[in-house]
Amino acid sequence: MxxxxxxxxxxxxxxxxxxAGGGIGRAVSISMxxxxxxxxxxxxxxxxxxxxxxxxxxxxxxxxxxxxxxxxPASVTAAAAQxxxxxxxxDILVNNAGLLRPGPIATLALEEWNKLLxxxxxxxxxxxxxxxxxxxxxxxxxxxxxxxxASRFPQGFSGAYSVSKAGVVxxxxxxxxxxxxxxxxxxxxxxxxxxxxxxxxxxQAPGVAERRAAxxxxxxxxxxxxxxxxxxxxxxxRAGYVTGxxxxxxxxxxxxxxxxxxxxxxxx
Length: 268
Description:
41% of the residues lie in helices and 13% in strands. It has helices at residues 23-34, 46-58, 73-87, 110-138, 161-179, 200-203, 208-214, 224-235, and strands at residues 14-18, 38-43, 65-67, 92-95, 141-146, 184-191, 246-249.
């Protein structure tokens, strides 16, 4: 690959993607592979991880699948060791694995609260430590963490989800602060409405897809590839002076609040 073709500077770099079995994780894995990166796929589900592996193989890229439950420290440690044995030290970590579960705060069981935080925040922390150690030793690397606009706007009746995503943003900023001197960047991508396997059940309800698209200024709900494009940029050399940032990728959805306020004389 020539320098012009490798404008992103990702050719040959090792990218580890958690939650790689579907949705945003699969789209990120494909985007990274197309940019010339070597990809390691981490997921709890061997079947969906295998499907991502097949998609990459169709592009001419072999990517190992490693079973990993990011909420379990021993599983993360083992996955990091296996990834290192296969491809060497990680250059890029994309923390993407996540849970979304309904639940009102008033009656939410502590077990449910802890379970979601264990994946959505603690899992990111564990992976950052495990793969970040490889980066610290080499004094270079990039991390991109998937959060949500729910980190800025509370998503009601979703248990610990918004709290967890707010935690991801602060974790990333702390990593950027502490590890920046060692040449490691850490950034967040916060999607808005995205149609993924995790959210697909919502879109199967009559009228939901159309109503959601109508409230987004760009007129459509995102697909995983929209998020993957931003992740790939942040992981690349083109974002070499960007760290500690939270890039909201929502098609303008977060800017519609004032348009919901009745203002006679200001209608279109």
